Amino acid sequence: MGDTGKPTGWYLPEFAHPYNVLAPHTQITVASPAGGEAPLDPSSVEASKDDKLSSEFLNHKQSLWQKTEKLSSFIGRAKEFEAIFYVGGHGPMFDLATDETSLQVIREFSEAGRVVSAVCHGPAALINAKLSDGSYLIADSPVTGFSNDEEDSVGLTPAMPFKLEDELNKSSGGRFEKAKEPWGEKVVVGRDGRLITGQNPASAGAVGEAIYQAISGNHTS
Fold first, then answer.
1. What is the pLDDT, as a whole number, of residue 34?
2. Which of 142, 78, 85 is nearest to 104 (CA)?
3. Are 40 and 47 in contact (CB under 8 A)?
4. How far apart are CA 218 and CA 135, in angstroms?
5. How far apart are CA 17 and CA 209, in angstroms?
6. What is the pTM of this model?
7. Which of 141, 112, 114 lies closest to 127 in space, CA to CA?
8. CA 138 to CA 164: how far, in whole Å?
9. What pLDDT score does 220 carry?
10. Looking at CB atoms within 10 Å, which of 5, 65, 113, 150 has the fewest?
11. pLDDT tens per residue across span 106-144
C-alpha cells in the first residue's frame, strides 16, 4: 500500500454485510481485475474479529473471493445483471480508479439502467467513470465515500495516491456528502435510485439494503 510496505485489498465487513443482505434474494457473481483470488486486506480481519457476521463469512465463504471471475469477461453483459457493487478497502485506490476495463463496465451498467454501487474506498472506482457523452457518471449527483477525516484518523492519507473525498467532490460537481461525525453511517442514493454509495464500514449493511430496495423496485431518489 503506497510506500508503507503493508498489503491491502478488499475490506472484510464491506463484503460480508452487503452479501448477508443480498444473498438470500439474489444470485451473486464475484469479479476482480485479474480474476482468481482477490486479496483480502489482513488488517480488516483483525479489525472485525468481534463482528460475528464477518467472522462467519471469513470462515465459510472463502470460495467467493478465492475463485473470482475476470472483470473483462463482463464487458457487454450488463443486461444480464441488476447491479454492480464495488467493495471497499484501500485496494481500489490503487487499481480500480484508473482501470479501463472497470470504467467500461461501469459505463455499460449505468447506460443499461443498472444499479452502480460502492462503499468506503470502493467509490474510487467511480471518480473517473464517464458516460458515452463524456460526462462524469457522478456529475451533479450526491455521492459519498471514505472521508478525509477518516483517512487522517487511520494515518494513511500520506500513503494514498489521492484524497478520495476531494476527487469524489470534484467529479460530482461539489455534491460529496458525509455523516455528521467520522465513522457514522451514511448512505447516499442518486441518479433516480441507480447510484448508491456508502461512506465507511459502518455503512456497508445499509448499502446492501439500499441495493436490494433498488433492484426490487422500491428505490427512492
1. 95
2. 78
3. no
4. 27
5. 10
6. 0.95
7. 141
8. 14
9. 41
10. 5
11. 999 999 999 999 999 999 999 999 999 999 999 999 999
Question: Is the dihedral angle over the CA atoms 163, 168, 171, 173 positive or is it negative?
Answer: negative
User: Which cell numbers in the block locate residue 94?
Assistant: 490503487
C-alpha distance across the termini of the chain, in Å? 36
- Given a cut of 70, the residues of the chain with pLDDT beneath it are 1-5, 7, 218-221
DSSP letter string over the chain?
-TTS-----B-HHHHHHHHHHHTTTS----EESS-BPPPB-HHHHHHTTT-HHHHHHHHH-HHHHHSBEEGGGGTT-GGG-SEEEE--SSHHHHTTTT-HHHHHHHHHHHHTT-EEEEETTGGGGGTT-B-TTS-BTTTTS-B--S-HHHHHHTT-GGGSSS-HHHHHHHHTTS-B---SSTT---EEEEGGGTEEEE-SGGGHHHHHHHHHHHHTT----
